[in-house]
Amino acid sequence: MVNLKGIIQENMNKFSFAQMTSNKDGKTSGSGTSGVYLVFVGGLIGIMGAIAALFMKSPEASNVLLFATGCIMTGAGLLGYRKSKENIEPTEPDSPEEPKP
C-alpha cells in the first residue's frame, strides 16, 4: 500500500514561496509575483464578502464574491502562464553570418 502521508509530507517540505515567484534562472517573475498577490487578495476579499453575506445581509455581497472569484482566477492564470512560459524551449539562432570584407 502507498504511504500517502509520507508523500504529502515530502511534497510539503519542498514547497516555498520563492519558487512560486521565481523563474528557472532564479530571477523574480513579474507574472508569478502578480499571480500570488492576486490570489491572496482575492482570498481576503472572498472572506470579507462571505462575512458580509452571512452576518450583514448585504445585497451587494454577490458582486463582491464574484469580484473575488475573478481575482483568484486571474492570479491562477498568471501563475499558470509563468509555468507554461518556462516549458517553452528557446529556439536556436540561425547560423552566424560570415563577415563581409
Walk me through the structure:
With 101 residues, the chain is mainly α. It contains four helices and no strands. It has helices at residues 4-14, 17-20, 30-55, 61-87. Helix 3 packs antiparallel against helix 4. The termini are far apart. The model has no long low-confidence stretch (mean pLDDT 77).
Helix content bin = 55-70%
Largest sheet: none
Number of strands: 0
Anisotropy-based shape: flat
Strand portion, in percent?
under 5%
Average pLDDT taken over every residue: 77
Q: pLDDT below 50 for ≥5 consecutive residues: which ranges?
A: none
Secondary-structure map:
Layout: H1 4-14, H2 17-20, H3 30-55, H4 61-87
Helix pairs in contact: 3-4
Features:
101 residues, mainly alpha
Summary?
The chain has 101 residues and is mainly α.
